[in-house]
Amino acid sequence: MVTIKDISKATGFSTTTVSRALNGYLDVNENTRKKIQVAAEKLGYTPNILARSLVMKNSKTVGLLITDLKRSGVKDNFLFQTLCGAMDQLQNMEYELVVLTTTTSKQRNKTYQQLCNERNLDGIIIQGLKVDDPYVQEAQQSSKPCVFIDIPIDAPNTGYVTTNQTESATQATKYLCRLGHECIGFINGHDTAHVSKERLRGYQQALEECELPFKPEYVYNGEFDEDKAKQCAISLILSYPEITAIFCASDVMALGVMKAARELNISIPDQLSVIGFDNILLSEYVTPSLTTVSQNPYEMGRRAADMMISLIEGKETDRIVVLNNELVLRDTTASPKLVEM
Question: Which of 94, 77, 27 is nearest to 252 (CA)?
């Protein structure tokens, strides 16, 4: 392996000058820098990233930590879009992105700090963890910068990016009310997800504003899973046949509701209106196309990465970013009709 010492011998410059030239220091004469760079190319020099990170006191590497990554989640492109947004922004700023996955068992055996240290990370972006996950608690105490996506944490080295969850859920539910629906079911994610709590709050707020009673029995948890949401929908529809609309806390769960409706021979939207949340790619192409709350995961990832770089480099930055969503009207919603079941 070619080293800085080899380039020093070939050019006659000291190892310090060679090192500073290759690392972009401005105090190196431009002619000197060019001679050193030409020699490095001829010799086939490849920088040792680990050694450079030790000298420069940072690795210019950021981790994206996610949980329970499964093949079954391939329909949900939300994570992929977030990843692309973060990766593009980090690459623009000459940072590397490392994707890390975690499970409950892994969190018992390896601390958050160990996870950072093993890969010499400058900071971590966290997405998809529950608010009570150990890593969420540990990240708040860590000296490493951390940016959360959809988890509002207020700690010295942290920030977060989210969207107007409550307002969006309120808007979606009120739209169903305006169509004339009075019995509206809600399939949520799970109790330990911040977005689930906010979307439930929005659903309840809309019912109150529309002077409709909140019925806890109309609320099921589908755990952001298509098959579980399908079973929830079957239970809701069979137990409470007066329900004419179901609002889901994710598009993937809305797909499960649509499957349930087909199995029960229920027409969408004539007999049942459905609204999802996220606006994943499939929502536009299913039949009928899904009315949904559109988020911008690419921009969320980009803004999270931008905030992370500012935290690493000690720059002033907003540590709370809230993006606005949009209700996209398609073909799964309509006014309720009296149809023989």
Answer: 77
